[in-house]
Write a structure and sequence with these properties.
Number of domains: 4
Shape: globular
Bound molecules: adenosine-5'-diphosphate, magnesium ion
CATH superfamily of the largest domain: P-loop containing nucleotide triphosphate hydrolases
CATH topology of the largest domain: Rossmann fold
Strand order of the largest sheet: 7-8-9-6-10
Largest sheet: 5 strands, parallel
Number of strands: 10
CATH class of the largest domain: Alpha Beta
CATH architecture of the largest domain: 3-Layer(aba) Sandwich
Helix content: 55-70%
């Protein structure tokens, strides 16, 4: 990776995230290292790194990847020259997990996160089935269902469970060749093989594994030759009775632009979803994480009721919950204060506010209609004019993103439209926002208005 490439990537990022965000969050990043699919940046503070990871991580990875640098993980280190170098060592180490590589050197898998094990996975009602299925696969016994297909919203623990399976298998059956990678990496490896005329090697390699795990498979939808290759790899492994584990953000049948034969193959095994977290699970996760933080920040006092408060108020996803805890501990240790409810409320005001507001679909429709200067009735009406249909899709997208409503529920509020229409709308906006910076800005503004 040359600085020139990072320069180009930054140009692209300006378009994606808008000038203001770019100047605040991307400009200060210093790329210090890029290897083994990990891009490492220097940042002024731990909080800064967390923020960038959470809000711009996907953009950065996508752009690096399209610039020919497939990256599956970003790491942020507090730069030594940065003004907050006085930040306690503990804050640094708490913020980013340790990483380990799978022992099989010749397998081109993604690095495993050492903290994503079964031990650290908290089981509750919403994820107990997924957990049990993952455990079963991790035993490495005879294949009983193939593939194991895990799906669910962002931050609910899919990647964690897959890494846990890999860790367990490595320990229990070191002779097995276990390969874990994201669907995106699968694609880049395949494209690389095509370019270097090494498709045979590629095929051989992927067919030689005992357990194949592909994360975020929705990524290959619409990418025809990659889908095709994935399908063949998949079939070859199933025929050879090798275990496959797949994850996606939605059920096989709901992944648009995925070939029907692949969908039906994916449905052949065990399909399990991770449900949104409930209060007990969130509290359990917080209690578990807090043990880790206690050991990192010795001497910090955590007042009663703070964890319950967080579990109650932050309902979005586990990643946000963890981010809140990280920030809380880092902040308390910086200012040297006890972690009380008051402190939590101050320090997490933004997160609490955005989880707090119970946005309705109607509110979203109203704001979007206002923004684009169209009538509210046209939001739910049948007009197909671009000037109306596009804002309508924007509202569908925001409804999906910002409310817990299902596609059919959203459909009903958009004049009784079918859930596939909503899905199409959401997808359309997801696609467009990657190339249309005006739209990306609009979305950002609307999101702020609605959540602020
Ligand atoms: P996904 O892949 O579904 O988007 P991840 O597996 O990356 O989600 O999980 C996001 C974060 O939340 C990770 O840090 C993970 O360790 C944590 N997490 C999610 N579910 C649990 C759980 N049940 N117990 C402990 N940590 C969890
Ligand atoms: Mg994941």
């Amino acid at each position: 990776m040359t600085n020139e490439t990072w320069g180009q990537v930054r140009e692209e990022l300006i378009k994606r995230v808008g000038r203001h965000n770019y100047a605040t969050w991307i400009e200060p990043l210093k790329l210090s290292q890029l290897k083994n699919g990990v891009a490492r940046f220097e940042v002024p503070t731990t909080f800064f790194g967390d923020w960038v990871q959470r809000n711009y991580g996907d953009h950065i990875r996508t752009q690096l990847s399209s610039a020919g640098e497939p990256v599956d993980r970003l790491e942020f280190a507090v730069g030594s020259a940065a003004p907050v170098a006085a930040l306690p060592q503990t804050a640094k180490s708490a913020a980013r997990p340790v990483r380990a590589r799978v022992s099989e050197e010749e397998l081109p898998g993604a690095p495993l996160d050492a903290r994503f094990t079964f031990d650290t996975f908290v089981v509750g009602k919403p994820n107990e089935l997924a957990h049990a299925a993952a455990r079963r696969v991790a035993e490495g016994g005879p294949v009983t269902f193939n593939p194991l297909f895990l799906y669910g919203g962002v931050g609910l623990g899919k990647t964690h469970l897959m890494h846990a399976i890999a860790h367990d298998l490595q320990a229990r059956r070191p002779e097995l060749r276990v390969l874990y990678l994201s669907a995106e990496q699968f694609m880049y490896r395949f494209v690389q093989a095509l370019r270097d005329r090494q498709v045979m090697d590629f095929k051989e390699l992927f067919r030689s594994v005992d357990v194949l795990m592909v994360d975020d498979v929705q990524f290959i939808a619409g990418k025809d030759s990659t889908q095709e290759e994935f399908f063949h790899t998949f079939n070859a492994l199933v025929d050879a009775n090798k275990q496959i584990v797949i994850s996606a953000d939605r059920a096989p049948g709901e992944i648009k632009d995925l070939e029907d034969r692949i969908k039906s193959r994916l449905q052949c095994g065990l399909v399990v979803d991770l449900h949104p977290t409930d209060y007990e699970l969130r509290l359990g996760i917080l209690q578990q994480k807090v043990e880790f933080y206690r050991s990192q920040y010795r001497g910090l006092v955590l007042a009663d009721g703070v964890l319950e408060f967080l579990a109650h108020r932050i309902t979005t996803n586990v990643r946000v919950l963890e981010g809140a805890l990280t920030r809380l501990f880092a902040f308390a240790s910086l200012v040297g204060r006890e972690i009380t409810l008051d402190l939590a409320q101050d320090c997490l005001a933004d997160i609490l506010r955005s989880s707090d507001r119970k946005l309705t679909i109607e509110e979203i429709q109203r704001k979007v209609a206002e923004h684009y200067n169209i009538r509210l009735s046209d939001m739910i009406g049948p007009k197909r004019l671009r000037t109306i249909a596009r804002p309508r899709q924007v509202a569908m997208y925001l409804a999906k993103q910002l409310t817990p409503r299902s596609l059919p529920e959203i459909g009903r509020r958009f004049g009784g439209r079918d859930h596939t229409t909503i899905m199409h709308g959401v997808r359309k906006i997801e696609e467009l926002m990657l190339t249309d910076s005006q739209l990306a800005d609009d979305l950002q503004l609307l999101r702020r208005l609605l959540q602020g």
